[in-house]
Amino acid sequence: METVIKTFGVQPILLAAQVVNFLVLLFLLKKFAYKPILKMLDARREKIALSLKQAEQIENRLQAIEAEKDQRLKAAAKEAQAIISEATKSGAQLIEEARQKASEDIKVLLKKNEEAMAREHDLLQKQIKAELSEMIVIGLTKVAKKVLTEKDKNMLVSETIRSI
Amino acid sequence: MEHISLAAEKIGQVGFLPITNTLIVSWIIVIVLAVLGYMAGKNVHMVPSGLQNLFESILEPLWDMTREMAHARARTFFPIIATFFLYILLANWFGLFPGFGTIGFWETKKVEPKAISQEQLATGQPGAESKEAGTSAQQNLAGSAVTQTSIAEAPHTERTFVPFFRSLNADLNMTLGLALASVVITHILALRFLGFWGYISKWISLNPIMLFVGLLELVSEGTKVLSLSLRLFGNIFAGEVVLSTISNLLAFIAPLPFYFLEIIVGVVQAAVFMLLTLVFMTLLSEKHVGAEEH
């Protein structure tokens, strides 16, 4: 055993020196390298997780917004359709109303016209009657050479008019 | 080129501490690694670059693996595991640099004057037949006293090559030190995580069968040190021998495949040491399955 140890050159002091070297290195690396780097790794891991979560949230929100937009668009289209149909309907109604009113007006006008014509006609008839009776009287007087009495006159005139 | 000695060569002595070439290399590696680590960890950014990137790419898989195996204890285990890996890896790769094992000096050692034959002196090469030669010299000496003194005083020198640098893990002091550190730290951590009684109950039990098993486990703790240290030492030392042998045969191009091989061996051995340490740590600090039933 002794010779084996000697051949390999194992000495307690050298053994201790190597252990000390290792421990020194362990201490230094732990303090100056592992600690900050592990901290950074953890921080990065957290940040990535957070970012992914946020990305997911953003995605969700985007989808929600998209859905809402679609819904709103649909609603707006529907509303527009309603407005258009309403307008068409009211337009038609207006036209109808106008037409009715116009026809009524026309009827009224026609009636008025008829009345006026009838009145004129009457007036004309009366005038013609009057003038005619006068002409007849004049003619008869000329024929009879006598002045007729008021009674004869009226009788003659009405008889003549009837015969005409 | 001489054969590579199993022991690390001594270069000097500071006080009571003998300075071997591996000790110098280990200091260099500790300094290099510490400086690199410091520079990597000095200014960490969310977006890594340069050294930070390099360290992260090594440390992150280690960290993931440690967490996977040790869960809550990972944070305690990780620095030890990672340091083992980085230290051994860098040491193995450093040993492949040109100059390792090849730049050094010839040391002429005076061997205590033994009776040696004249021919042996002339060639100056003590060899396999020295024993035979010794006996023949003794026979000579029996003849005349004058020759005896002259031969005894004749300085006999032995030239050995002492390289300034030697692959760190080709020194059993280093690998044994690491293995001891690994096992001792494992036990300290087990003590910390299990508490005194939890730790003791791993080895000693009232149940005779379990007591025997505990004893076996205790022995296996000793073999852990041996297997960890000798595996690493054997692999790296063998690599050194292979490289020097091939280089002796043909120094150009021919050793290249072996250098590639050694690069892989360096990683594999570092990973093996690290993994075994991690497994031992995890197992030993695990709560005893039987203990929970009591």
Automatic annotation (TrEMBL), chain A:
- For this UniProt record, give its keywords in alphabetical order, as a comma-separated list: ATP synthesis, Cell membrane, CF(0), Coiled coil, Hydrogen ion transport, Ion transport, Membrane, Transmembrane, Transmembrane helix, Transport
**Which coarse location class describes where this protein primarily resides?**
membrane
Pfam families listed in its UniProt record? ATP-synt_B
> Organism's domain of life?
Bacteria
Q: Which residues form a coiled coil?
A: 48-119
What is the membrane topology here?
Answer: Single-pass membrane protein
Where it sits in the cell: the answer is: Cell membrane; Endomembrane system
Q: Which InterPro entries match?
A: ATP_synth_b/b'su_bac/chlpt (IPR002146), ATP_synth_F0_bsu_bac (IPR005864), ATP_synthase_B_chain (IPR050059)
GO MF: proton-transporting ATP synthase activity, rotational mechanism; proton-transporting ATPase activity, rotational mechanism
Which family does the record assign?
Answer: Belongs to the ATPase B chain family.
HAMAP family xrefs = ATP_synth_b_bprime
Q: How does it assemble?
A: F-type ATPases have 2 components, F(1) - the catalytic core - and F(0) - the membrane proton channel. F(1) has five subunits: alpha(3), beta(3), gamma(1), delta(1), epsilon(1). F(0) has three main subunits: a(1), b(2) and c(10-14). The alpha and beta chains form an alternating ring which encloses part of the gamma chain. F(1) is attached to F(0) by a central stalk formed by the gamma and epsilon chains, while a peripheral stalk is formed by the delta and b chains.
> Would you tell me the protein name for this molecule?
ATP synthase subunit b
Gene symbol of the encoding locus: atpF
UniProtKB/TrEMBL annotation, chain B:
The name this protein goes by in its record: ATP synthase subunit a
Give a short account of what the protein does. Key component of the proton channel; it plays a direct role in the translocation of protons across the membrane.
Major localization listed first in the record, in broad terms: membrane
Q: Is Transport one of the keywords?
A: yes
Q: Which family does it belong to?
A: Belongs to the ATPase A chain family.
Q: From the UniProt record, which GO molecular function terms apply?
A: proton-transporting ATP synthase activity, rotational mechanism
Tell me the keywords, alphabetical order. Answer: ATP synthesis, Cell membrane, CF(0), Hydrogen ion transport, Ion transport, Membrane, Transmembrane, Transmembrane helix, Transport
One BP term from GO: proton motive force-driven plasma membrane ATP synthesis
How far does the signal peptide extend, from start to end residue?
none
Where in or outside the cell? Cell membrane; Membrane
Q: Give the bilayer topology.
A: Multi-pass membrane protein
